[in-house]
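Q: How do we represent a protein-ligand complex in a form that can be generated token by token?
A: Start from the inputs.
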Amino acid sequence: MNTIYTLADLRDWKKKTRDLSPPIRLGVVGNPVVHSFSPAMQNAALEESGLDLQYAPFEIAPDELESALRLLRELDFVGLNLTVPHKIAALALVDEADERAKKIGAINTIIFRGGKSLGKNTDGPGFERAIREEFSVDLRDLRVLLLGAGGGAGRAIAFQCALENCERLVLVNRTFDKAQALAHALAGYFSGPRVLGPEARLEAIRWDDPSLRRQLGRTDLVVNATTIGLQQSDPSPLPHGLIAPHLMVYDLLYKKTPTRLLAAAAEAGARGANGLTMLLHQGALAFELWFDRPAPLVAMRRALDGK
Ligand code: NAP
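Then emit the structure tokens for the protein with NAP bound:
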């Protein structure tokens, strides 16, 4: 089990870590962060690549994020990953962000270079690769229903669907305003001709929308990008009985035991997969940004399989 570091540790970093070898120069910042598999995966990648550095978890509260990012930059870190709940807030705290990250409104990766911090987002491309690996299909050919479209990961996935010009995208979010605003931002990407049927290529619907059953009948891929399922007692984000065998179900959560959503998918005879493949591919893309070299996918996958 990795030591989880805090803001207090960062304030006293040299003393706290003076006996550590190799030194910690990368990490994941979240709250909570205890469940993250990124340290195991990235440390395997560092070792396999012969890089004498370590990657560690940092538990940082939202009101500590600004101080933590400043200290991590001053302490000569190579880069970071951001996880729940920091992806959106961190965008405003980096010196620069690329166009994709600005459009998404969230970052999951920071590169520290020349005393500056650069924000990027690898969640969308990581998701696209995961869908290809899990279901042997291309995102661009799918009709996607996205639960949790207003969160950091959900926004990244929605933009990836838009950039890939996927067939159809239905945005569902508990706070409906966020889904509506996102649909507005993405409208230009979906203005092309429809291929499959007469319905709109882009829609935002309410969390409890009565048309959900009908929408699912016109969906190929359901994605859970909500945090529902993180707790063992959480319900399924989709009401029981709505999952049909034709669906592919991708749950961004990665846990040893299947989430209720994936259990319901299996029960319905639908294909399902958890978020481990997305974790792998977004992490590999982050590694490539930090070190400008190919990520050792086999070693990273082995580390995840061992969790
Ligand atoms: P986030 O920014 O905090 O967004 C959370 C989302 O969940 C929002 O859409 C929120 O809706 C929704 N939500 C929370 N509680 C809800 C409830 N009770 N009912 C309905 N909707 C609810 O988090 P994030 O960074 O996007 O992460 C989302 C999930 O994806 C997390 O579980 C994270 O671990 C996972 N993730 C996995 C990977 C991977 O590589 N596998 C990558 C990124 C994220 P509101 O807008 O209404 O609050």
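The CA atoms of residues 4 and 202 lie 42 Å apart. The radius of gyration is 19 Å.
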